[in-house]
């Protein structure tokens, strides 16, 4: 288990949060939990209700829908934002493909941080648009 300072340092590496002050990073570190998964573990299951938002601190995960790999995410990425934003069941499985360390933030904390730092919402929209473009590209290939 990392110390609060170590966690704050790791969270800062996630580009979405790179602009946060040391104080904000520490309060984020305090209000979530580090979670480690073995390779092969299903972290998020399609269809389940869940609102945890995951930062990928270390490792690699695959986003899969009915066994089809939609994308692979690595350190510095995030997942689980869809359930958090629209309160709908998880849209896909997210499976660790290597030993993986995540930092799981509860929706209340996350909403509070975003309200105080609108650039996080902008950064998130940018990533979501990128994922939509990737999906569109794959569909048209
Ligand atoms: P959520 O629906 O909460 O849980 C599954 C997660 O997989 C989802 O949030 C996104 O973080 C991620 N995800 C779903 N579809 C895609 C996609 N097409 N590209 C990248 N990530 C995705």
Write structural notes for this entry.
The chain is α+β, with helices and mostly antiparallel strands and 141 residues long. It has five helices and eight strands. It has a four-stranded antiparallel beta sheet with strand order 1-8-3-6. The chain is globular. The termini are far apart. Adenosine-3',5'-cyclic-monophosphate binds at residues 44, 63, 70-71, 79-83, 90-92, 94, 131, 135.
Topology:
Blueprint: H1 4-12, H2 22-30, E1 32-37, E2 42-44, E3 53-58, E4 60-65, E5 68-74, E6 78-79, H3 81-86, E7 93-96, E8 100-105, H4 107-116, H5 118-140
Helix pairs in contact: 1-2, 4-5
The structure holds adenosine-3',5'-cyclic-monophosphate.
Q: Would you kindly provide a brief summary of this structure?
A:
It contains five helices and eight strands.
Primary descriptors:
single chain; alpha+beta; 4-stranded antiparallel beta sheet; 8 strands; globular; binds adenosine-3',5'-cyclic-monophosphate
- Give the strand content: 25-35%
Which bin fits the share of residues in helices?
40-55%
Q: Which small molecules are bound?
A: adenosine-3',5'-cyclic-monophosphate
Q: Trace the largest sheet across and list its strands.
A: 1-8-3-6
Question: Rg, please?
Answer: 15 Å
The main pleated sheet reads as: 4 strands, antiparallel
- Number of helices, where a helix is a run of at least 4 consecutive DSSP H or I residues: 5
The averaged pLDDT comes out at 91
